[in-house]
Amino acid sequence: MKTNPRSAPDVSVRGLTRRFGANTVLRGLDLDIESGEFVALLGRSGSGKTTFLRTLAGLDAVTQGEVRLPANRAVVFQEPRLMPWKKVWQNVTLGLTGADARGRAVAALKEVGLDHRLDAWPATLSGGEAQRVALARALVREPQLLLLDEPFAALDALTRIRMHELVAALWTVHKPSVLLVTHDVDEALLLADRALVLEDGRIRTELKITQPHPRARAMIGFSLMRADLLSALGVDVDGPAGIAKPADTVACRVPDDAKPRRTAPVLRSV
Ligand SMILES: Nc1ncnc2c1ncn2[C@@H]1O[C@H](COP(=O)(O)OP(=O)(O)O)[C@@H](O)[C@H]1O
Ligand SMILES: [Mg+2]
Q: Strands 38-43 and 2-4, how do they pair?
């Protein structure tokens, strides 16, 4: 694995292949992530999303293919992974070197709205608060590449919406390159510049999302993009009776289709 200087693209992956015994999970995967770009990675369960993210995090060695990455990376997982015997601020500075660790923890916790819980123990935090501490722990490292593996999946719907707003705001301020692994199509559409679908070990589908931030489900093209991505994931939203149709897809489909096609997304097979 090689590291990139601060020049575009931030991430360059060529021909990445990863096998676990007879199971080939990544099969010649290619991907570039531009500096400051927010990319969402979707795919069915077991398609290799976490395996790929672990490779970008440096947690899994590259045995076949070439991966170029910025040196400064941080990861947030689905579970916050806080040390229960360390206070909140100490969890944020875990493994951090340099002067004024506590001061830097305070600044990062302020950014996620938790500076009032500096000296709290992890066990006293809600799920959303714990995940915000995990986000602060990533932020304090000022990563050039932020890797997020389904970080909101375990949170309730309301907390998830707040986390989306927080991540969008932090990204706007700090502009790291982001790879967000998610199974939530709406999350990808609300946050990312580009949504990718991993299938059979490669990026098979790419959707550019150009709508300005902040975004909402009411934005032009949302339901069409949503249907396209769900279809790329193998969910037949227009399929036979018996396959669940997300309510707002059906409701929004008519006005979206009535708009000129140039406002519609371009789903590209890769
Ligand atoms: N350490 C491992 N040893 C053996 N098989 C693994 C290991 N990690 C992942 N796998 C397998 O690789 C495949 C992809 O897993 P994963 O990357 O976790 O998928 P996803 O995150 O898309 O759900 C699965 O079949 C999984 O069982
Ligand atoms: Mg996973």
A: unpaired
Mutate to test the pocket of ligand 1, among 23, 42, 51 (most ligand atoms within 8 A of CB): 51
- Which amino acid is located at 268 in the chain? R
Which of 217, 112, 108, 110 is CA-nearest to residue 163?
112
CB 179 within 8 A of CB 39: yes
pLDDT digits (tens, 9 = 90+) for 100-154: 999 999 999 999 999 999 999 999 999 999 999 999 999 999 999 999 999 999 9
Domain boundaries, the chain: 2-72+143-269, 88-136
For residue 205, what pLDDT is reported? 96
pLDDT digits (tens, 9 = 90+) for 57-84: 999 999 999 999 999 999 999 999 999 9
Which residue has a Cα nearest atom 26 of ligand 1? Answer: 46
- What is 2-72+143-269's CATH topology? Rossmann fold (3.40.50)
Q: Is the CB of 48 under 6 A from ligand 1?
A: yes
Structure tokens of 125? 């935090």
- For tokens 């559409």, what's the residue? 189
Q: Which residue has the tokens 């279809």?
A: 231
Q: Which atom of ligand 1 approaches the CA of 51 most closely?
A: 17
Of 18, 29, 44, 50, the residue with max ligand 1 atoms within 8 A of its CB, to mutate for a pocket test, comes to 50
Query: Residue 42 corresponds to which tokens in the numbers above?
Result: 């979707």
